[in-house]
Design goal:
The chain has 7 helices and no strands. The protein is mostly helical.
Length: 125
């Protein structure tokens, strides 16, 4: 992964937003347009936030991440196990945020250097 090609973005949202992303992917598969997905998600209050600005921020961040996924990745998402979904959402986060990507690469490199082949959720945290 070439970190210099990933933008530096400040995000107040560090979670994977699994349920929201799953709903946004469903919408995308039916609408095939991220702008329409954004509008519909806002109308439906998919993030379940009280203020419009919070809804917009969560939807904007989730769509930003999901747009980094390929169409085959998006289509496969619904057939994935919950763990596989988390992995794909982690990949999307890393593709859209240089800081997350750098932290992920550092973690993987450390594990490779120590001969470990499993990275746990605790390690990410």
């Amino acid at each position: 992964m070439e970190l210099d090609k990933i933008s530096i973005r400040r995000s107040m949202i560090d979670a994977l937003m699994g349920p929201l992303c799953a709903e946004l992917i469903k919408l995308f598969l039916s609408l095939n347009d991220w702008d329409k997905v954004r509008d519909e998600a806002l109308h439906l209050n998919l993030p379940q936030k009280d203020t419009k600005s919070s809804r917009q921020r969560y939807i904007r961040e989730a769509v930003w991440r999901l747009k980094t996924l390929s169409l085959p990745e998006i289509r496969a998402f619904s057939g994935f196990t919950p763990e596989e979904r988390k992995m794909l959402l982690w990949i999307a986060l890393c593709r859209s945020n240089r800081l997350a990507a750098a932290c992920g690469m550092k973690l993987f490199n450390e594990y490779l250097n120590y001969g470990k082949n499993v990275v746990s959720v605790i390690d990410y945290n």
